[in-house]
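Fold these two proteins, one after the other.
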Amino acid sequence: MPTPAPPLAVATAGLGDVLQLFRTEPTLTRADVMALTGLSRSTVNQRLDALLAAALVVPSGEGAPTGGRPASRFAFNSERGVLLVADIGATGMRTALCNLRGEVRQEHEQSLDVATGPDIVLSVVDEAFRALLAEAGRAAADVHGIGIDVPGPVDFDRGQVVSPPIMSGWDRYDIRAWFAGRYDCPVLVDKDVNAMAVGEHRSLYPEVRQLLMVKVGTGVGAGMIIDGEVFRGADGAAGDIGHIQLTVDDTDNEPVCRCGNTGCVEAYAGGWALVRDLNAAGRPVSTVQEALALIRTGDVTAVRLARRAGRILGHAIADAVSLLNPGVVVIGGQLAQIEEQLFAGIREMVYRRSLPLATRKLSIAATALGPRSGLVGMALLLADSIFAAHRVEGLIARRD
């Protein structure tokens, strides 16, 4: 039996609250649910019978004897349906079919230019979703939820991208409505770095209450876990570290950023800026991956620019560390692949500029999930949203 927690208030322990227990424990008996909620046996029986009838909970063998017959055990039915997730980047995307726990079962990866616009991109996403469903022998009716993350600022409540620097045609586009005629399920839209933060946090650092995820790819962004939950700010704009403006000593003219301002962190240290500076230095590269390949060869100019990018990123991260005091800073995105050249500058600036108390226990690490962190995190965010306690009764009514 799981360790008893303080009983939930009887008035609030509805179907959704009981289902949450089954989502967090492998199996439970009726007695377990009574102990964890403080509900009476008759009320637990009522809640459990409703969840069994809706196939959200299923029998799962017998429990240990309690002086009489073995207690029946039950488990969350993670195979009742599927979730579809798309992690969209500037130049590529990953799509996945997941079970209802948010565990990835099948995934695809392909190149994609997000600047071609929402209609083209979402059509490609839907084609990938249909291929995943066909491979799994599932139908559109089996889809309980869709999760989309994008490389731009997102109004989370409305599910809309707002004034994205690199996503032409996406401003306030109704992503949810695009999928409405194709799937009868909720659609969750979030910023890619928020999803990455959740993926790293839940998979690698579940005990850490404050975590900062920094993505350094074509652009630069950040996601924050505060008190164990994603922090999006009042309007979903929290974490836009790439557009903090800095004064850099070795630069006479501040570079123009894709957002239209000058001197942004991203305009100095983003992947696109690295490509720009390498070309200006006579090193012809056309993509971020080509720039990284040149850095790995040890080219003196490329390595110098990478280390400079690390120090500039470290400057911005140091400010965030002083403000948020995270326990872990995770660096992801394409530039995390050049850890040796990038991280030295980041660590140098963070430990030089941040308060000693804020860095005393700080860990700065490369992503452990690599390019899958956004996909993994978006699936978990979607599962949590679909099965939020206040939504479970509506889910049962809709699926009956």
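Now the second one:
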Amino acid sequence: MQIIWQDSDNYEDARIGRVFNHRRPQRFPLAVVRATCEDDIVAAVQLAVERNCRVAVRSGGHSWAAWSVRDNSILIDLGNFKHVEVDAENRIARATPSMTGRELNSVLVRDHQLMFPGGHCPDVGLGGFLLQGGMGWNCRNWGWACERVQAVDVVTAEGNLLHCNAEQNQELYWASRGAGPGFPGVVTKFHLRLNPYPKKGGFRSSGYIYPIHLYREVFRWIIDISPNFDNDTEIAAISHFPEGSNEMRFFVLFVTMKDSVEAAEEALRPAQQSRPAGTVEEWFSKEDSLDEQYNNQAGANPEKHRYCADNAYIADDADVPAVLEEAFTTLPHRKSFALWYAMNPCSRRKLPDMALSMHSDHYFALYTVWEEENDDRRCQDWVRSVMEKVEQHSVGAYLGDSDFQVRKTKFWADENAKRLMEIRRQWDPTGRICGYLDQGDVSGTQGLGNAHEWKMR
């Protein structure tokens, strides 16, 4: 087990070297433990117990607010703990939290013609992604990625290693599917149910790019056709500046995963036939792949940039194009983008019994991206201004694209939130696991209040 203390020469790299957001936090762990196995994680938690300090965990380092970097903590960095086992016959994978979606799927697709609906951005680690619910590939139809978690192996706040599923240590299993960074333990392994990967060229996409002045017409079209669209097709709308262009565009993307070219074309044809006129560019049922989609996502989320993200589930009965118009038409930087995901029909069904419990038909997120520190205030102020208005029409938010230091809102159904905070206090009564990073990092054993902060003003 490698321990890097504050006075070590390589401390700064250990502290933030794997943090994706280059808007770096001014928080300083007592030490960083670079774990390579479960025994290292157990030893790191026991070290924190001995030192009477907290424990923070880094899987992929992709949280926008850098939740893993905490004062008065032992930071357990899992970046060197990468392992996956595949039971292809039963379509089960056992993977460590720092495995990224791309790393896991490269093994699954290449060797087994299977896939897991992990994060869209290729370098998102499984740990944070699954703990916060997992809005993965084709979530609107296949459901949340955490629904596919059959079990978790966990090191508790006292340093004990437990296996948790629906029959044993049920409370930790329940919390592992939606608690986010407030999970009262350290996950060492996820046991995951897999999907077959599309065969015979059936992974295909259609795209329609419009000038921004057609925003409302196109957005109303996509909202109208989404609820009854094909069950294997993901639907997204993005406002962005195409590379090398000063013209903002409104881009609607359909990604379908079928077992033949013919089935894919049939799935995508209703959009092709009903699309509004006026595209700047379009394509229909183009051959695609998971790897190509990862490449596109990596281009939209470049490394070594500064980020400010926020999000909301917009109320089902809201005038969504009107509510989101400012967000989609006034981006503050050419590398920023606004995103809408269709979530119906997943949003209309009863979820399994798990912590995750907040969603609506319309998921909206802002990914404000820039390069220079002197743009920090302008970009962050723009996000705050937009979100203060959007929250008035929201039912809550997704943990993964949130920063509790800036804005707290509803993240769970009320009863789920109450049960989750009770489980946190039961399994971690002293607040050993850092939990939710709110303003001043004071949430402790109380967790989050699960209420609209700005909407109540």
